[in-house]
Amino acid sequence: MKALVYTGPEALAYRDVPDAETGQGEVLVRVRRVGICGSDMHAYLGHDDRRPAPLILGHEAAGVTADGRRVTVNPLVICGICDACVAGRENLCAARQIISMPPREGAFAEAVAMPEGNLVTVPDHITDAQAALAEPIACGWNGARVGLGHTSGATRALVLGGGAIGLGAALCLTAQGAEAVTLVEPNATRRAYLTDYVQAVSEAPDGAFDVVVDAVGMDATRAAASASVRPGGAIVHIGLGGGQGGLDLRRITLQQIAVFGIYTYTSQDFRDTAAAMFAGRLGPLDWVETRPLSEGARAFADIRAGTVAAPKIILTPEA
């Protein structure tokens, strides 16, 4: 089969690879759409030791099974029996694996093998491109659930970062009951694109917010989150951009601000996200740009250059 293979920092090759093989309890999913994630970009730039070259990246996938069922893919493969899994916190499973990280190849390919329990059936009115957004939006669903769970009454929320994670978090906050949501995106091209979906501004406005979601995860955004959250509020940290500083721990301590690290989502979060998407609660889900998988290297380079307006590029295998 054909696949887009990460071969080293800022290097991708579209080439033939061995066909995906299923293990016990797994099914083969023919990939129809697969999104480029920020973690794929980190690997592409050589910043993720968990994803060594050569490797097939990609974990935001939707496709079709051998029996013709259209599905969206939860890429987290879990043990199902540890304390975290039994408690419904599968994203904390110590034995968890994720496609696009050894030992599992990713979905920038014509097919990927997945456990049956990781698949959610997609209804006819949802397109393949929309279905591929379930994974990144589920991260925001988890973050919104946790952040709003810390507050009570009317909630003002601020989201830092207008990529797919940030936009997804903003949509999820609204769907879960936040009264007002503002998104900060400094890139003017992307900000103009986002105004059709959310209230997007160039920098964090004055005032204190009940929930602040950092969907970037850099020193500067953590500092902005620390400055923007109200006393007793919550910082929800989803972004994995890098950096080590930024949080104002003195203010966080003196004003009893909660800080939640958010890693992916639980299985229930993924199912709830899919259900909200299918019911239309998260909007039209048309904020993507679609390109052929064979042109994936150019897509990565364009994202790197900051010339892509859409929050998400979706790749399409030709098969």
TrEMBL record:
Name of the featured protein: Alcohol dehydrogenase
Pfam families membership: ADH_N, ADH_zinc_N
Native source organism of the sequence: Jannaschia pagri
Span of domain Alcohol dehydrogenase-like C-terminal: 164-275
Database matches in InterPro entries: ADH-like_C, ADH-like_N, GroES-like_sf, NAD(P)-bd_dom_sf, Zn_alcohol_dh
The UniProt record lists the keyword Oxidoreductase: yes
Domain called Alcohol dehydrogenase-like N-terminal: residue spans: 23-124
Key words, A-Z: Oxidoreductase
